[in-house]
Automatic annotation (TrEMBL):
Organism name: Oryzias javanicus
A Pfam family it matches: 7tm_1
GO MF terms, alphabetically ordered: trace-amine receptor activity
Keywords from the UniProt entry: Cell membrane, G-protein coupled receptor, Membrane, Receptor, Transducer, Transmembrane, Transmembrane helix
Record-given protein name: G-protein coupled receptors family 1 profile domain-containing protein
InterPro entries referenced in this protein's UniProt entry, alphabetically: GPCR_Rhodpsn (IPR000276), GPCR_Rhodpsn_7TM (IPR017452), TAAR (IPR050569)
Subcellular location(s) of the protein: Cell membrane
GO CC terms, sorted: plasma membrane
TM region positions: 31-55, 67-90, 102-124, 145-164, 194-217, 249-268, 280-299
Alphabetized PANTHER family for the sequence: HISTAMINE RECEPTOR-RELATED G-PROTEIN COUPLED RECEPTOR, TRACE AMINE ASSOCIATED RECEPTOR 19P-RELATED
Length: 326
């Protein structure tokens, strides 16, 4: 009887001496986690797909800033699928093999690191728009944005092979039992990861948004103090639009910081990274990909309008791409 109970608690009962043990969570807790993660996965995929279709379909939305949001939504879209692997790990067992384990980490690393870089580019775009508005159209063009976005994705692909080099040579070498999925970064790989995808990006985002906040506050005060004229009214309207956009992008940056810091705090306390479906830091990190389109829905009228046209299938009509949804 005791042997049967012991085997029931193993990931691979036929590997009695070498199998990992299940997490042993109460059924109610496992069900709650399953419903939470499943809902988060579905909503993340669906909402980011709306962002992707909106910007890709409607020509008026294909501005340099929105192209950055498109790339961010693209990475967030795939993060929604990555949450599925956390659902599979609710019981604490990995059944897909060592190669798939490393493959998951590679895909996860490329997508999430690209997301971090997109937030940095968005903060730069916001900084130029608010602090150097007269030079914005010259400095920020669609061509430069496309080159920058491509460079970020290429950089993420290159870094993943530096960080994962030891794990690629022998997948599963750091597993202590069957049913575990662990990758370990050496000192150099960990340093690259922390510098390029945590300390560096966070520093840039904080510095730029603080500067944007200071300039935005001064401009808002100036607009309230100046009397309106016919010409001045148009100018104020434009400035208000810029400030509203900066506020929205600032919320994206704030959400990024809140969701990123707990995750990287774990990596600063130890080099070993492990699948933990119950880890608050992991869930919060993935939740950022759901939070971004929710911010767009609350503060971008164009997203609400375009989402309505997509859901009602109005985008299938000829010439729908020319509709002004701004």
């Amino acid at each position: 009887m005791q042997t049967q109970e012991k085997e029931a608690g193993l990931c691979f009962p036929h590997l009695l001496n070498s199998s990992c043990r299940r997490s042993g969570r109460p059924p109610a807790e496992s069900m709650f986690m399953y419903i939470t993660l499943s809902s988060m996965s579905v909503l993340t995929v669906a909402l980011n797909l709306l962002v992707i279709i909106s910007i890709a379909h409607f020509k008026r939305l294909q501005t340099p800033t929105n192209l950055l949001l498109l790339s961010l939504a693209f990475s967030d879209f795939f993060v929604g699928f990555l949450v599925v692997f956390q659902i599979l790990l609710i019981d604490g067992c990995w059944f897909l093999g060592d190669v798939m384990c490393v493959g998951y980490y590679i895909v996860d690393y490329v997508i999430t690191s690209a997301s971090v870089e997109m937030v940095v580019l968005i903060s730069v775009d916001c900084y130029v728009a608010i602090c150097e508005p007269l030079r914005y159209s010259m400095k920020v063009t669609k061509r430069r944005v496309c080159i920058s976005v491509s460079g970020c994705w290429i950089f993420s692909f290159l870094c993943v092979f530096i960080v994962m080099k030891d794990n690629l040579r022998q997948p599963g070498r750091h597993n202590s039992c069957y049913g575990e999925c662990v990758v370990v970064f050496d000192q150099f790989s960990g340093l690259v990861d922390i510098l390029f995808f945590f300390i560096g990006p966070v520093s840039v985002v904080v510095v730029l948004y603080v500067r944007v906040f200071v300039v935005a506050v001064s401009q808002a005060r100036a607009m309230r103090s100046h009397p309106l004229s016919v010409h001045g009214s148009a100018r104020v309207t434009l400035k208000k639009s810029d400030l509203k956009s900066a506020r929205t992008l600032g919320l994206v940056g704030l959400a990024f910081l809140i969701c990123l810091c707990p995750y990287f705090s774990l990596t600063l306390t130890g080099q070993e990274a492990e699948f933990q479906a119950s880890s608050f830091a992991f869930v919060l990190f993935y939740f950022n990909s759901l939070l971004n389109p929710l911010i767009y829905a609350l503060f971008y009228p164009w997203f609400r309008k375009s989402a309505k046209l997509i859901v009602t299938l109005q985008v299938l009509k000829p010439g729908s791409s020319q509709i002004n949804v701004e």
